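Technical note accompanying the year-one report. For the benefit of new consortium partners, we illustrate the data format agreed upon in the data management plan: each record pairs a sequence with a structure-token string. No post-processing was applied to the example shown here.
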Amino acid sequence: MDTTELIGYIAMAFLVVSFLPKQIKRIRIINFIGCTFFVLYGILLGWKWPLIVSNGLIALIQIYHLFIVKIKAVV
């Protein structure tokens, strides 16, 4: 197994595990990590844009909900 394939398996594992917790914050954090690994995986596969763009956007959505929405609730 090479490094690229290992990154793909790690990404897949984080994505699947992100659906197990009941707390939405934990789900978002784990899903963000999985998306980040999928972006890296897409780059290592030779710039596979559908993989990079879709997971990059989902990662940004998770960041938005984890930090921006939280800041707005405090203000």
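Partners are asked to follow this layout when depositing records. Helices lie at 3-17, 24-44, 49-74.
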